């Protein structure tokens, strides 16, 4: 007979153990995930660390430039010609009458001779016109005198007849005398008018001839100046800076022959980045660094438009320039925009822009750690920038480029 057997209980302990293990791993993972990642370490010696300060902040802009003469005289060709001789080389000191070079052009010389011939011809024509008109005037005056004499004779005869000399003159003679007198009077009046016309014509013709002579003399003087201008002179005291010509070179009117400057009167021409030039004003103080010393100056002119990303600014020099200063010398200029009182400021971080914001690491725990902070910025200068929020006086911040630590909010300094 079969004996019923009791069912054997299943072994569940291993299953519970496995579940417990999985749960433990999950809890550990969650706990580790909640732990803060260890802060990376950064070498302190390679960092640029600055302290936030409160006080006066001087806003400045800076730009490169060069020294330029205040007085420049460009000497240009007044006529075409070939360079025949060069008497002075660049760098020489010149005076007003210093002969720099000579040009030659036979055509210009011939034109001068032709203009002188025209003047002589016009003078001869004037002389001939005067002689002709004077002769004509004399002839007319002689006619007037003759007619006046005849009229006077007739008038005497008529007076004698009226005085009772009828036995000498008949009535017919008296009538003829009266007619003769009237005719001579009319002819005399016409002759006088001709004299007046001749005199007026003489004045007009001689005046026209004299005007023609004046014009021809002006032309001759112009031609002479052209010939004289081929002997090129400095035109003023100074230094011959440039003479871009060679012997035998042909030049046309308007060609630059030379440049004369006054080397003792120099100004600085600076190129200020256009983004920094918005607050520039005439009269602002400037400092010019010639790399051999400093010179003080004032902003004298600001270009009305930007060119290739910069604004040209001219600075007049106050006082003497450092020794060795000369035209075209490269310089660095710093212009003072304004002075701000009682503001928070810090040295300008890499990439910081005015009126913007930047993320900086602020040192804590005695400088052992640094936490990332968002800093609001204000007005900027060449090397400093205003702090409007995020930092306090005395805070120490890292100004170096920390872009490699983007995404990290805390670093440890060693």
UniProtKB/TrEMBL annotation:
<dbReference type="GO" id="GO:0015679">
    <property type="term" value="P:plasma membrane copper ion transport"/>
</dbReference>
<dbReference type="GO" id="GO:0060003">
    <property type="term" value="P:copper ion export"/>
</dbReference>
<protein>
    <submittedName>
        <fullName>HlyD family efflux transporter periplasmic adaptor subunit</fullName>
    </submittedName>
</protein>
<dbReference type="GO" id="GO:0030313">
    <property type="term" value="C:cell envelope"/>
</dbReference>
<dbReference type="InterPro" id="IPR006311">
    <property type="entry name" value="TAT_signal"/>
</dbReference>
<dbReference type="InterPro" id="IPR051909">
    <property type="entry name" value="MFP_Cation_Efflux"/>
</dbReference>
<keyword id="KW-0813">Transport</keyword>
């Amino acid at each position: 007979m079969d004996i019923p057997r009791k069912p054997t209980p299943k072994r569940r302990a291993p299953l519970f153990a496995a579940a417990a293990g999985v749960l433990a791993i999950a809890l550990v993972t969650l706990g580790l995930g909640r732990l803060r990642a260890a802060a990376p370490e950064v070498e302190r010696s390679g960092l640029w660390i600055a302290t936030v300060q409160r006080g006066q902040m001087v806003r400045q802009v800076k730009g490169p430039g060069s020294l330029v003469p205040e007085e420049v005289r460009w000497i240009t060709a007044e006529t075409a010609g070939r360079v025949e001789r060069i008497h002075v080389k660049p760098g020489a000191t010149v005076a007003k009458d210093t002969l720099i070079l000579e040009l030659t052009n036979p055509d210009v010389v011939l034109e001068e001779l032709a203009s002188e011939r025209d003047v002589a011809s016009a003078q001869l024509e004037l002389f001939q016109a005067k002689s002709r008109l004077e002769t004509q005037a004399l002839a007319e005056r002689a006619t007037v005198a003759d007619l006046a004499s005849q009229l006077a004779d007739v008038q005497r005869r008529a007076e004698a007849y009226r005085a009772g000399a009828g036995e000498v003159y008949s009535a017919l003679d008296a009538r003829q005398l009266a007619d003769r007198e009237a005719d001579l009077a009319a002819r005399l009046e016409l002759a006088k008018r001709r004299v007046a016309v001749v005199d007026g014509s003489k004045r007009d013709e001689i005046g026209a001839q004299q005007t023609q002579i004046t014009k021809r003399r002006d032309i001759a003087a112009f031609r002479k100046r052209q010939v004289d201008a081929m002997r090129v002179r400095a035109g003023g005291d100074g230094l011959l800076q440039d003479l871009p010509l060679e012997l035998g070179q042909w030049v046309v009117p308007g060609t630059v022959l030379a440049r004369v400057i006054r080397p003792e009167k120099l100004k600085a021409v600076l190129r200020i980045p256009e983004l920094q030039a918005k607050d520039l004003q005439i009269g602002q103080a400037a400092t010019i660094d010639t790399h051999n010393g400093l010179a003080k100056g004032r902003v004298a002119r600001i270009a009305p438009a930007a060119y290739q990303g910069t604004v040209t600014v001219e600075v007049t020099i106050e006082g003497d320039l450092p020794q060795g200063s000369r035209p075209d010398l490269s310089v660095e200029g710093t212009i003072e925009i304004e002075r701000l009182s009682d503001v928070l400021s810090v040295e300008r971080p890499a990439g910081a822009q005015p009126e913007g914001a930047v993320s900086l690491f602020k040192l804590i725990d005695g400088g052992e750690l640094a936490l990332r902070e968002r800093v609001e910025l204000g007005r900027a200068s060449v090397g400093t920038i205003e702090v409007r929020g995020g930092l306090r006086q005395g805070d120490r911040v890292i100004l170096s480029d920390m872009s490699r630590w983007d995404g990290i909010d805390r670093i440890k300094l060693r």
